[in-house]
From TrEMBL:
Taxonomic placement: Eukaryota, Metazoa, Chordata, Craniata, Vertebrata
Topology with respect to the bilayer: Multi-pass membrane protein
The gene coding this protein: ACKR4
Gene Ontology MF term list: C-C chemokine binding; C-C chemokine receptor activity; scavenger receptor activity
Cellular-component GO terms for this entry: external side of plasma membrane
Keyword Cell membrane: yes
Top-level taxon of origin: Eukaryota
Listed transmembrane segments: 50-74, 86-105, 125-143, 163-186, 206-230, 250-280, 300-318
Name used for this protein in its record: Atypical chemokine receptor 4 isoform X1
Organism, as annotated: Hipposideros armiger
Pfam family for this entry, one: 7tm_1
Annotated family: Belongs to the G-protein coupled receptor 1 family.
Subcellular compartments: Cell membrane
Gene Ontology biological process: calcium-mediated signaling; cell chemotaxis; immune response; positive regulation of cytosolic calcium ion concentration
CDD domains per the UniProt record, alphabetical: 7tmA_ACKR4_CCR11
Keywords assigned: Cell membrane, G-protein coupled receptor, Glycoprotein, Membrane, Receptor, Transducer, Transmembrane, Transmembrane helix
């Protein structure tokens, strides 16, 4: 019997979206003599045990530091906020929440899921909510920059439409996370994976993937591409202004988005097509697909670490806020260090000291 036929038999009884894993749930009667023909992916899991924790640790440290600074500055120091500021603040919050899920997935890659079924569902849903909402807030930023450059500037600040847009973005992302809440579970190998009922068929599994691609990449990419293209063309036509820096920023934003997001979504699209048509019939090709999804998804996640650099630290006004916050913190530290210390065993005052030790 051909490998494809054996794999199809396994997938017919398999409730998981994974490719031919030997730990797949197989129900009913089956010819156990054919098991050796099912693709064994121990090397794929061994790669994940090394690569994912290392990459997630780097992304977690860098991303938490950068996005935390953004949230602190916008929430505590910058009182006059524009629409772009609100979108950047929401983007930083989405990135932070996304990054907070990475330690769980790192542990899952090494030791399996140890937090139970409920946390598996919640963590998977949080991952989707914040990944998708982050992409949509990038599109919102591009629209606002387009209006700022091509239309008459507005001084109304943040209004109800901006808040409604933010609410709609979060709601759309939450709706897209419903399949994670419903279908993710912990299998008998202690892995947090999607488990689809057999009666739903492969079309539903593929539809979920395609919806995530559409709302998490295609729509934001088209909006960003059109808005930034028109913005760049408008900047070039404007006389007597310094164009090089804004154009470089726009070009950098688009290039980074394409480089980090396009490979992952291409692999996801191929995976969705394979779910429907069973195109991958070779075990080695299936293994390469699994490794590709791990690597490209990690690169896509790293965009959360780059957002503060692309959208915030390139702006001179935000740098000024950082300097003000640093000076304020430095002044506070000096005041604390110069406090006169009175010893408990004497009534004679001492000289000012730079230590707080008793």
């Amino acid at each position: 019997m051909e490998f494809f036929q054996i794999a199809a038999m396994a997938l017919e009884h398999n409730h998981s979206i994974d490719y031919y894993y030997e730990e797949s749930e197989i129900n009913g009667t089956h010819d156990y003599s054919q098991y050796e023909l099912i693709c064994i992916k121990e090397e794929v899991r061994n790669f994940a045990k090394v690569f994912l924790p290392a990459f997630f640790t780097i992304a977690f440290i860098i991303g938490i530091a950068g996005n935390s600074i953004v949230v602190v500055i916008y929430a505590c120091y910058k009182k006059q906020r524009t629409k772009t500021d609100v979108y950047i603040l929401n983007l930083a919050v989405a990135d932070l929440l996304l990054l907070f899920t990475l330690p769980f997935w790192a542990v899952n890659a090494v030791h399996g899921w140890v937090l139970g079924k409920i946390m598996c569902k919640v963590t998977s849903a949080l991952y989707t909510v914040n990944f998708v909402s982050g992409m949509q807030f990038l599109a919102c930023i591009s629209i606002d920059r387009y209006w700022a450059v091509t239309k008459a500037p507005s001084h109304s600040g943040v209004g109800r439409p901006c808040l409604i847009i933010c609410f709609c973005v979060w709601m759309a992302a939450i709706l897209l996370s419903v399949p994670q809440l419903v279908f993710y579970t912990v299998n008998h190998m202690a892995r947090c994976i999607p488990t689809f009922p057999h009666h739903l068929g492969t079309s539903v599994k593929a539809s979920i993937q395609l919806l995530e691609i559409c709302f998490g990449f295609v729509i934001p990419f088209l909006i960003m591409g059109v808005c930034y293209f028109i913005t760049a063309r408008t900047l070039i036509k404007m006389p007597n202004i310094k164009k090089s820096r804004p154009l470089k920023v726009l070009l950098t934003v688009v290039i980074v988005f394409i480089v980090t997001q396009l490979p992952y979504n291409i692999v996801k699209f191929c995976q969705a097509i394979d779910i429907i048509y069973f195109l991958i019939t070779d075990c080695d090709m299936s293994k390469r697909m699994d490794v590709a999804i791990q690597v490209t998804e990690s690169i896509a996640l790293f965009h959360s670490c780059l957002n503060p650099v692309l959208y915030v630290f390139m702006g001179s006004s935000f740098k000024n806020y950082i300097m003000k916050a640093a000076k304020k913190y430095g002044s506070w530290r000096r005041q604390r260090q110069n406090v006169e210390e009175i010893p408990f065993d004497s009534e004679v005052p001492t000289e000012p000291t730079s230590t707080l030790s008793i």
